[in-house]
Amino acid sequence: xxxxxxxxxxxxxxxxxxxxxxxxxxxxxxxxxxxxxxxxxxxxxxxxxxxxxxxxxxxxxxxxxxxxxxxxxxxxxxxxxxxxxxxxxxxxxxxxxxxxxxxxxxxxxxxxxxxxxxxxxxxxxxxxxxxxxxxxxxxxxxxxxxxxxxxxxxxxxxxxxxxxxxxxxxxxxxxxxxxxxxxxxxxxxxxxxxxxxxxxxxxxxxxxxxxxxxxxxxxxxx
Amino acid sequence: xxxxxxxxxxxxxxxxxxxxxxxxxxxxxxxxxxxxxxxxxxxxxxxxxxxxxxxxxxxxxxxxxxxxxxxxxxxxxxxxxxxxxxxxxxxxxxxxxxxxxxxxxxxxxxxxxxxxxxxxxxxxxxxxxxxxxxxxxxxxxxxxxxxxxxxxxxxxxxxxxxxxxxxxxxxxxxxxxxxxxxxxxxxxxxxxxxxxxxxxxxxxxxxxxxxxxxxxxxxxxxxxxxxxxxxx
Lengths: 222, 232
Hints:
The complex is a heterodimer. Chain A starts with a strand and ends with a strand. In chain A, the strands form two sheets. Chain A has a six-stranded mixed beta sheet with strand order 6-5-4-1-2-11, with no helix packed on it. In chain A, helix 3 (107-114) crosses helix 4. Chain A has helices at residues 36-44, 92-97, 107-114, 130-143, 160-177, 188-194; strands at residues 2-9, 14-21, 25-29, 51-56, 59-63, 68-69, 77-80, 148-152, 180-185, 197-200, 211-214, 219-220. By secondary structure, chain A is of the alpha/beta class. In chain A, 45% of the residues are buried. By secondary structure, chain B is mainly alpha-helical. Helices cover 77% and strands 0% of the residues of chain B. In chain B, helix 1 (4-33) packs parallel to helix 5 (87-111). Residues 223-232 of chain B have low confidence and may be disordered. Chains A and B meet through strand 7 and helix 4 of A and helix 6, helix 7 and helix 10 of B.
């Protein structure tokens, strides 16, 4: 379970997040530029909020009052980036094994097998199709056995047929692994399809300096 | 004097100078591209000065630093070392003038690395040193190698600064550019033409390396783009 309650000043507005994610998939839904990716980056530790607390399974990842700000590598959070950010100079196997501790490098093969990438283990990301790249990114993020999985528009770069297939794969995998995840999307249809709970991130139409508010309105869907 | 001596000396001097400027240039680029370095612009200006200085001015400054009465010269004398008018002085001159080229190429290469890849590595549990070694450095390698080629070329051609601090002592500090000057002045056309030929061959080799690095760098960027499903 993750509890996020923080504020981050951005150049154009101040982003305020206040939500609790307990379900298998919590969706952050909103228009581009509303600050969805920044929220994920704050949770992953890639950028620091200005104030507030982020608590994962009872332990603080970030707390302004307690002066805690764990580096990303100590947070135990898997992150599937938008456009995946795969390592272009490493093979599919290398992309996964780099995340594994020295004694467990052989487990990379298991992950490739499980995600249907075994025959592509020596291919580099540039040689993979969109769907394969997406699966590799997911496999890589899960290889570290994260306590929480963050997904930033994970199906956005795919064509429609692949998108539907990979969404089904994702749902099956989510139920199998039971990992708590937060998924960012701008698509309402995707939000309703994948999320147990959808948190809307409203766009700040106000003037400079007005607060952007991320409301936990507990809207139930699917 | 055999005309081979200046060629071999130049190879040695340029290779060592390039190695020194690679270590310094890459280290300084990594240091100064991080956020929160105080006076970063000032340090960078100091590194880049030899690029805009006339080489003889750079050489004179080095002489003031490394000479018998210079601060570094005095410190070295205490441990029994004297560099002025020795071949290591030629290395110092070449490294100083090639450092700006190396630094700029390394800086551009490091900044050109997709920071999302570095961030992805961080979320996968890699330490900063591991991120640099396993992700940043391999992705920046083509740009850095291009810098090595340009720095070597600059070190190979160093004349003014070398003359000031290392002199033009045949068989000891006479590098190829200095030997060429002496050969032309002394009317030894055959020797001068040999130096020309060696340098032309070297130059084509270095240009090939730079071209290869540019193509590699470009392909690395293309490889990062999604290809879509059409390929299948």
